[in-house]
Structures are given as structure tokens and as C-alpha cells.
Design goal:
The complex is a heterotrimer of chains A (265), B (267) and C (299). Chain A is mostly helical. Helices cover 64% and strands 1% of the residues of chain A. In chain A, helix 6 packs antiparallel against helix 9. By secondary structure, chain B is mainly α. In chain B, 58% of the residues lie in helices and 1% in strands. Chain B contains 11 helices and 1 strand. In chain C, a hairpin with a 2-residue loop joins strand 3 and strand 4. The chains are: A mainly alpha (265), B mainly alpha (267), C alpha+beta (299). Chains A and B meet through helix 2, strand 1, helix 3, helix 4 and helix 5 of A and helix 1, strand 1, helix 2, helix 4 and helix 5 of B.
Chain lengths: 265, 267, 299
């Protein structure tokens, strides 16, 4: 690293960074992003800790592909099936986007379950992260509901009859069931409005709830810190070591370097 | 509130540990996250490709789009997306009217509530897996239960009359009753009369209410007369059998069905 | 054809500009008054009493949002420092907010929820002349329950002509919606597709397929089994199959609304049926379990 930079280089650097400084001075956003990126996580985080961000990736895939699908899909009982056929057979790469949305949902849900299993086995739901566990359980339930509402949209035989059964399952809930089922159907029978209702739930209401919950989930992760794995000396109640263990090269235990550990500058 | 103080001290210990031994999220942890995200995206794209083009010529991931919904059908069997198979199979297990509500809302609601209150009854600070035997056993049992139910749901067969009928020529070959017109007519009756809604036969049909597989029914050599009287009144021959009487099919049809069953020697 | 533009011009009078002028004049008057008042008073006087309470949302002592170098734009109120507050303004702000919230959300929620619970109008489906229904034989009838809705209202019923009861034709009209979770039940016996008929009636096309449900009706989803009267004999259904009201008009069979049935005693024309209001699948209509479903939304 060159300690001394020519005045000219410094000038160019200042010019290049000017927009960032401008933004930082007016919003503090750069500082926030920097805090997020360079906040410390336990030294022994492992591949197990990637399940949460993998779930987020699957959700973002759903968001992107869903928005594109909505450009071609027609939520009407008489044209829904034809429009899905059109997406699958005629639109350029339509089969791929639809396939990614359909299987991305499965991946999203399986990753939610795996992430939950990891958090459970690591005991990461314990104090002070109880609230984040609850938000996670709500995310799981909301995610499953998102899958349920999306299942009707292709409007083929399986979609229709599986939704009939699903609505009737809700209908058997004591006291409120019959009303819940009517609310989902938008009437006493599955009619022309039901599909549009499920479409609206699937692409506006439930994703909105998911986004809000994910935001809260991530905020709590950043605020409370990533939990260390249960095999960490910290989990065993040991006192923190004053110095890090002997440095070795590699990604897990990087050799300390000036300007990389902690914040730059 | 010494327990709470303990937990607070534990969290302070965690913070001190992160401060001394921690590493910045970017790029060390984020590298792992990025690799994992790439894997996720690649898996999703691969699934989409396999869904469309199949794997080795088989559409292992199911049809891309079925027939248009027909709310007036009387020959269709729906199934949910795979992540609801556990619930789907739970509904088959609870086959008593008094317990329907347990499978539909009871068990799922109890599971959800247990998950929600988990942090409030597991108050110990202990996180080491070897010292949390109850949690580990509970997790293992849950995984085994969900896995079994999902597997059973995935392998559960449907019995759509037209598909069952299409399988009849292969039954003739396997069971060796080609040319036996009486048995073939019986096989058609078998496919049309809803028998496969409960019985399985050479891999087709859904298994419900504990009904036996009938592929090798003829191997017991009970005789056509026994088969007819059983079809006429199953619970007379087999007390407690939930199978309905087929008497109204008429003597001719019952004889065809009985011939078919006696010709089924197990393939 | 005339030029449509010319046509429109001939029929529409030019819009009046009076409302625009009046609103403009009113705005000028109000703004002028405010400006004049400010000028006379020499600018805004100290109006500390009406200043809005600042930063009520964050509790004092709560840690600020972590940011690397960011500085909060507003200084935190020092501990113990109080702004002079106006109870009327606080209440008015909250009250007005509640009114805005109510005005916006209540109709929207009502719009989303209410149609599901409003009384549905009664159905009437014409299945054509009763001579199409041979006595003692079941027919699988498929029809549009609500022709204006199209295919989405297609329903199936199992219909049997029971002959005459006290000189009037009697029918058994069973819905094919399983009383477990609503899957389509199938006749437990052959259907004779080659003898199927399509009848044109005032309710649209109706297809009639003769069938011999010797074993009654069977649900393929979870194995619910019903006898020929629609009574549950095995499996998870909580009651018998729903039935349709029916009557004869001008020699045609008309299906009315659906109602639920717990158990039918007797067969055919002699069946004794206790009717319950139409209830969703999986919900008991009699016995102790029916207490779980005391209210049904109108159908």
C-alpha cells in the first residue's frame, strides 16, 4: 500500500468519492451501509449461518420473477389458464420465468424450514433473540400462505381442487371457520371473484406482509448480532480471549491486515 | 431475577467475544452467503429446466400445466403442492368423522403455537447441542414425522378412472388373462366402479381405509362364488369391513368382477 | 358517415369558466387576507404555545440508530426538558388522525369483506323434461349453476327418479361435493358415457350421463364412502352428502338451493330427510360437534 499519494491522485479520488460524500452528508445512508457491511460477526460463523441469506435470495428470486409474470398473467377465470399457457409456450423464456417462480417457491419454503431447524439446534432463539424467532415463525406461516394463494393461479384442475380442499380445511376451524372460508372465497361458492381475490392476496397483501416481516427480521439480526455456533467457546460460557488465536491465512481466519479489520480509515 | 441477570451477563459475554474475536461481516461471512446464494439460484434454474424438459426423458417434476379447471368434474383427484403433503397425508390418517378437525386445524394450530411460545418455555441459556437432549430428540422426532408424512403423501397414488382403465391392457399381460373376455369386462368394471379409490392393483389406485392390495387376490383361490358373495355383502363375510355392497351391479356384472379377481394371480 | 369530431362539437356546449374564476378569486382573497395580516402584525409573533410536540415517538434514553458517522439532524431533548404542550392540540391531532384512518380504512375493509357475507340470491337450474330421467336409475347431471358466471359455476349432481309419491314425481338430487373437504365424489359403479345426453334448457346446456352407483358414492381424496342415499358409511366425512331442493315446472325438473343433511332414513321416495342450512364440508350439523359451528354466513 502506497502511503504517499500524489496530489493528483488524491484529487481524482476526492472527485470520484464526491457523490458518496454528498449522499452521506445529506442522508447518512453510506454510514448505515458501512455499518451493516463492516459490523462484526462471531469469528466462528460457518456455512450453517448462510441458510438465512439463502432464504432471502430465494425470496428475491420470487419477487423478481413474480413481477414479470404479473405482466402477462390475466387473473380472470375465463382467461387465466390460457394466459398461463401463453406464458409457458409463447412468451420468450416464459417457461423459464414461470418455472423459476414455481420451483423458487419450493426452494424458499424448504430453506425456511432448514433455517428454522438450524436456529433451533443452535439455540439461537434464546435471550435476547426471542422476538426474532417469533418473527421467523410468522414469516414461515405467511410464506406457506403465500404458497397456498399462488397454487390456484395457474387455474388447472389440480390448482382448483386443491384450493377447494384448502379453503374447506380453513372452514373447519371452530366458530370462525365458516366465515374464514367465505372470506377467502369472496362468497358462498368459489366464483369469478375468488381468483382475483387470491391474485391480489398473492401479489400485494401477503408479499407486503412478508417484506415488512423480513425487514424487521433483518433489523433484529443486525441489532442483536449473529449468534455464535453452539460449539463456540463463548456458548460454553468461557471468557473471551484477549487476543485472537494465531492468525492463519484463509477465509475463515484471515490474517489481520491494516484497513480491513474493523472499519477502513 | 438472577436468571435474567445470568442471561444478560451471557449476552454481554457474547458482545465482548464478538468484539475481541469477531470479524467483519463483509467480506468473510458475506462470501459464504454469496456462494450459498449462487447455489440457490442455480438450483432454482435447474429445477425450472428439468420441469420443462424432464430428466432422461421423464417428467420427474410433474406436468407443467394441467387441463383447465372444471368445477363440475366427477373424476378428478387433487393434490396440494409438496410442502403441504404432510397435511395431505394427515387427512388420510384421520379417517374418523370425529377427528377430522384434529387433522385440519387441530394439529397444525398446535404446532404453530408450540413454535411461537418455544422461546418462553425453553429459558435455559445452554446452547451446546450435547447438553440439550430434549431439544435434540424433539427436533429429530419432528424431522422424522414430517419426512415420513411428506414421503407418504408424495408416494400416495391417485385413482382417476380413465387412467386406471388405460392400465388394463398391461394388467392382461402381467396377469395372463388376455382373451378372457369375462375377466377383461370385470377389469373395466373394477376401474369404473371406484374400487381403486381404496384398493391398489398392480401399482395403481390409492390406498384408503386399510383396504388390501388386490393384485394377487386370485392366488388365494377362494373361488368365484366366494368373491360374488363378498361383493354382495362385504361385512357379512368379513365383519366390520367398511367396504360397501356392490349387489346392485347385478348378477352378470358381479360374475365378471369375480372372474377378474380370481384371474389376478399376482402378475 | 360524418366526421365524428364535427358531430361532437355540434352537440357539446363549451365549458363554463365561471367556477374556475370563482375558486381563483376565493383563493386570492384568503391569501391576500393572510398576507395583509402578517404585514400588519410584523411577521409571525412568538407562537411557542402552539408549536407541535417534537420527537414524541422515541423514548428518551433509547439508543440512536446505529450509523457509522451519521449525525442526527435534530438534537435529542435533554433529560427532563419539556416543551410546553397543548392538550387540545394533542387530542385534536390524534382525533383527526383517527378520523382520517377510519374514513379511509373502514369502507375499504368493508368492500373487501362484506360481499362475502351478503345474502346470495337463490339459484334455479332447469334440467329439462323429467322424461329424460328413467325411473330408478341414477344420472350424473352437469350444469351451470349460474349461467351468467360461466364455467366457474359448473356443478354436478346425482339425480334419481324415484317414481310417484302421492301422485307427484319424486327425485333424489344429491350434490357431488364430499362432506369431508369438498372433493368431487364419484359413483361407485360404471357410468354409461355412450348413453349420455345433452339437453338444451333455459339454463343452458345440461349433460346427463346414466350411471349405476351400485356401491353408492366414493370420494377419491380421502376415501369417504356413501351409500346410494348419500349417507356416510365409511371414511372421514362428518355427515351425508348435501342435497338440492327440487320441483317440477311445466314437466321440467328444476333444481333449487342446496341444503345439508346429517343422515337420511328410508330410501328413494320414502326417504325422511331432516334439512339443515347449507354448511361447509367438514362441519358437523348434528351432535355435540355441531356446537363448534354455531353460526353460518348466509348462503
Amino acid at each position: 500500500m502506497a502511503r504517499r499519494k500524489s496530489d493528483r491522485m488524491q484529487q481524482i479520488e476526492r472527485m470520484a468519492l464526491y457523490p458518496l460524500d454528498w449522499l452521506e452528508e445529506r442522508s447518512g445512508l453510506i454510514g448505515g451501509v458501512r455499518y451493516f457491511l463492516f459490523r462484526k460477526v462471531p469469528g466462528d460463523t460457518s456455512w450453517w449461518h448462510t441458510l438465512g441469506s439463502a432464504t432471502l435470495t430465494a425470496f428475491l428470486v420470487q419477487l423478481a420473477t413474480g413481477v414479470i409474470l404479473a405482466m402477462y398473467y390475466k387473473p380472470d377465470v375465463n382467461s387465466a389458464h390460457e394466459s398461463v399457457q401463453h406464458i409457458t409456450n409463447d412468451v420468450w423464456a416464459g417457461w423459464l420465468v414461470r418455472g423459476m417462480h414455481r420451483w423458487g417457491a419450493s426452494v424458499f419454503i424448504i430453506l425456511m424450514f432448514m433455517h428454522m431447524g438450524r436456529v433451533f439446534l443452535f439455540g439461537a432463539y434464546k435471550y435476547p433473540r426471542e422476538l426474532n424467532w417469533i418473527v421467523g415463525v410468522l414469516l414461515l406461516a405467511t410464506g406457506l400462505f403465500e404458497g397456498l394463494t399462488g397454487y390456484l393461479l395457474p387455474y388447472d384442475q389440480t390448482a382448483y381442487w386443491a384450493t377447494v380442499v384448502a379453503i374447506n380445511i380453513n372452514g373447519t376451524a371452530p366458530f370462525v371457520g365458516p366465515f374464514l372460508a367465505s372470506l377467502l372465497r369472496g362468497g358462498a361458492e368459489i366464483g369469478p371473484d375468488t381468483l382475483a381475490r387470491f391474485y391480489s392476496l398473492h401479489m400485494l397483501l401477503v408479499p407486503g406482509a412478508l417484506l415488512g416481516l423480513i425487514g424487521l427480521h433483518l433489523y433484529l439480526v443486525v441489532r442483536l448480532g449473529v449468534s455464535s455456533p453452539p460449539w463456540s467457546p463463548e456458548a460454553a460460557g468461557g471468557q473471551p480471549e484477549p487476543e485472537p488465536p494465531p492468525a492463519r491465512s484463509g477465509l475463515v481466519q484471515p490474517r489481520p491486515r491494516a484497513g480491513v479489520r474493523g472499519r477502513p480509515e | 431475577m438472577s436468571a435474567l441477570d445470568d442471561r444478560r451477563a451471557g449476552f454481554q459475554r457474547y458482545k465482548a467475544d464478538v468484539k475481541s474475536r469477531g470479524k467483519p461481516f463483509y467480506p468473510y461471512a458475506m462470501f459464504h452467503d454469496t456462494v450459498m446464494s449462487l447455489v440457490v439460484v442455480v438450483v432454482i434454474v435447474l429445477l425450472a429446466v428439468v420441469w420443462k424438459y424432464g430428466l432422461f426423458g421423464n417428467h420427474v417434476l410433474g406436468t407443467v400445466l394441467g387441463d383447465k379447471a372444471d368445477p363440475g368434474t366427477h373424476s378428478f383427484v387433487p393434490r396440494p403442492d409438496w410442502y403441504f403433503y404432510f397435511l395431505f397425508y394427515l387427512l388420510r390418517i384421520f379417517k374418523w368423522p370425529e377427528s377430522v378437525i384434529l387433522a385440519t386445524v387441530g394439529i397444525p394450530t398446535i404446532c404453530l403455537i408450540l413454535l411461537l411460545v418455544l422461546p418462553f418455555f425453553d429459558l435455559r441459556m445452554e446452547r451446546r447441542i450435547s447438553r440439550r437432549p430434549v431439544a435434540v430428540v424433539a427436533a429429530a422426532l419432528t424431522i422424522v414425522a414430517m419426512g415420513t408424512l411428506t414421503y407418504k403423501g408424495a408416494t400416495a397414488q391417485e385413482a382417476i378412472a380413465s387412467e386406471v382403465k388405460a392400465a388394463i391392457p398391461s394388467w392382461e399381460k402381467k396377469q395372463g388373462f388376455e382373451g378372457n373376455q369375462e375377466a377383461i369386462a370385470g377389469a373395466n368394471l373394477f376401474a369404473e366402479s371406484g374400487c381403486t379409490n381404496c384398493h391398489t392393483y398392480l401399482g395403481t389406485g390409492s390406498s384408503n381405509l386399510g383396504a388390501p392390495d388386490l393384485s394377487a387376490e386370485g392366488a388365494k383361490n377362494k373361488g368365484i362364488q366366494f368373491q360374488i358373495s363378498h361383493l354382495e355383502c362385504p361385512s357379512c363375510v368379513n365383519p366390520g369391513s367398511p367396504m360397501p355392497s356392490f349387489k346392485d351391479l347385478g348378477k352378470d356384472n358381479l360374475h365378471k368382477l369375480a372372474t377378474f379377481l380370481e384371474a389376478s394371480k399376482g402378475g | 358517415m360524418d366526421d365524428p369530431r364535427g358531430d361532437m362539437e355540434r352537440h357539446e356546449s363549451p365549458p363554463s369558466l365561471w367556477p374556475v374564476g370563482a375558486i381563483g378569486a376565493a383563493l386570492v382573497a384568503v391569501c391576500g387576507f393572510l398576507w395583509a395580516r402578517d404585514v400588519v402584525r410584523g411577521g409571525r409573533a412568538t407562537t411557542v404555545a402552539t408549536a407541535p410536540p417534537l420527537e414524541e415517538g422515541r423514548a428518551p434514553g433509547a439508543p440512536p440508530i446505529p450509523a457509522d458517522k451519521g449525525e442526527a439532524a435534530m438534537p435529542e431533548p435533554a433529560p427532563g426538558e419539556r416543551f410546553p404542550r397543548n392538550v387540545f392540540l394533542e387530542n385534536a391531532t390524534l382525533g383527526l388522525g383517527a378520523i382520517i384512518g377510519g374514513v379511509v380504512t373502514l369502507p375499504v375493509i368493508g368492500f373487501a369483506v362484506m360481499p362475502a357475507f351478503l345474502k346470495q340470491h337463490s339459484h334455479e337450474v332447469d334440467l329439462g323434461p323429467i322424461s329424460n330421467f328413467q325411473e330408478g336409475q341414477y344420472v350424473v347431471a352437469t350444469f351451470l349453476r349460474e349461467p351468467s358466471q360461466g364455467e366457474v359455476s359448473r356443478r354436478t349432481a346425482f339425480i334419481r327418479n324415484n317414481g310417484l309419491l302421492h301422485g307427484k314425481p319424486s327425485f333424489t338430487c344429491i350434490s357431488n361435493r364430499c362432506a369431508h373437504l369438498g372433493c368431487p365424489v364419484q359413483p361407485g359403479g360404471p357410468t354409461f358415457d355412450d348413453k349420455s345426453k345433452t339437453v338444451k334448457t333455459p339454463s343452458g346446456q345440461v349433460s346427463l350421463i346414466p350411471s349405476l352407483p351400485a356401491a353408492g358414492f366414493i370420494c377419491p381424496c380421502h376415501g369417504g364412502t356413501y351409500d346410494q342415499e348419500g349417507n356416510r358409511i365409511a371414511g372421514p366425512p362428518v355427515r351425508g352428502l348435501d342435497r338440492f331442493e327440487f320441483w317440477i315446472r311445466n314437466g321440467n325438473l328444476i333444481l333449487g338451493n342446496t341444503y345439508s343433511v346429517a343422515q337420511v332414513t328410508g330410501t328413494g321416495a320414502n326417504a325422511e330427510i331432516k334439512r339443515y342450512t347449507l354448511t361447509g364440508p367438514g362441519q358437523h350439523v348434528d351432535g355435540i360437534e355441531s356446537w363448534l359451528y354455531p353460526l353460518q354466513p348466509p348462503h
